[in-house]
Amino acid sequence: xxxxxxxxxxxxxxxxxxxxxxxxxxxxxxxxxxxxxxxxxxxxxxxxxxxxxxxxxxxxxxxxxxxxxxxxxxxxxxxxxxxx
Length: 84
Known about the structure:
By secondary structure, the protein is α+β, with helices and mostly antiparallel strands. It is built from 1 helix and 5 strands, in the order E-E-E-E-E-H. It has one helix at residues 60-83; strands at residues 4-12, 15-20, 27-31, 44-50, 53-58. The radius of gyration is 15 Å and the shape is elongated. The N and C termini lie far apart (50 Å).
């Protein structure tokens, strides 16, 4: 498997569920013990699989930008809800 970008969607029963970037339609489910480091939900990462082990590089700038965009959308929704 070549190195590919994903977003960590959730953790379930010892597994990490990643969504392939940018469409976020294709899932990659990895046993947490097969990952080289822990990852926070919502993080954008680069993943490379080598012999059943997953090497994860957290893309800090992209993760921060994604979180800022989500916060902006949440703020807009709150303002819209408060007007009604």
